[in-house]
TrEMBL record:
This is Uncharacterized protein. It comes from the Bacteria. The lineage of its organism: Bacteria, Pseudomonadati, Pseudomonadota, Alphaproteobacteria, Acetobacterales.
Amino acid sequence: MDRPNMTFLSARSLRHDTPWSALPPRPAAGTREAEAVSIGLLRHHTKNALQRILSEVSKVRGLEETREGQRLMLEVERRVMLSAALSNALFGFTHAPGGMEDRLRSVCEATLELMGDPDQILRLAVTVEGDCPVPLRPTALRAAHEMVGNAVKHGMHARLVGHIQVCLSSAEGWTRLVVEDDGWGYCGARDGGEGLDLLRALAGLHEGTTTLERIQDGTRATMDLPHGP
């Protein structure tokens, strides 16, 4: 019986055009440079960890000989590549960041695919209203990643179909990010758990606020950020 042609995942690294390629240009001295170095170290660590996962999966005896095993290996690699794409959308590792709407959509779509089950049908709607101030954009993107991830992890758990709506609006000195889903809602700690703590910390960087509430048909997470002087 002929064996299918399979490329062992452990025998190849991530593609050269992924966000793990060249380091970004050096930023201005000070905290921006320190942050860039920290992100670079985290990226390097993450790259090594993900490649180790690929290597360990490929070592399972007979895995590549079955259709289910091939599917598993391809799915692991797909999620590794999604993680890389998400990092690029969040931090712009290998190219200059695009427009805010494009970056927000990329972050939300990659998060949805990364966190969701392949058999789920999850619809995503992303809208941007107004012009989000440049200093607030990284916070908004990271918050959207966390909010959408929580919506998939908690709200869409064990559901085949679901809908997530993301809206970023800026007007009259404030920027608001709202993520709504029609899922089960959050079932963790009463105070929202680690995810909400991270969102509160992000909002606190700009003296903003974060709320999580049940609504009639699901859950709503909101972050309000005041514009600087």
